[in-house]
Amino acid sequence: MKGLVIENVYEAYTNSDGxxxxxxxxxxGYFTHLGDAKNxxxxxxxxxxxxxxxxxxxxxxxxxxYKEYEEMMLGATIQRALSKLTLEExxxxxxxxxxx
Length: 100
Hints:
By secondary structure, the protein is of the alpha+beta class. The protein is built from three helices and three strands. The chain folds into two domains: 1-62, no CATH class; 65-100. The chain has a three-stranded antiparallel sheet, with helices on one face. The two termini are 26 Å apart. The relative contact order is 0.19.
């Protein structure tokens, strides 16, 4: 599994409904320079207007195979389930209290 951190890049995006703008976001491209993102957005928005540009900061996880993905999803499911337990329930199961 590889982690790729994307910080301070610009995404040009438009709407899937070019007439009324009632659709979902459609990715145009990621750019390192704001001006380039704005240029890519020119005339690509609803009814020929300029499309939107937003700053993007996120981590992308790239899996080497499906097994890695399944393991990560299972771990996340277990953590969500454990986070719902009360202190008494955690003690009854022999688990450490939160934060330990």
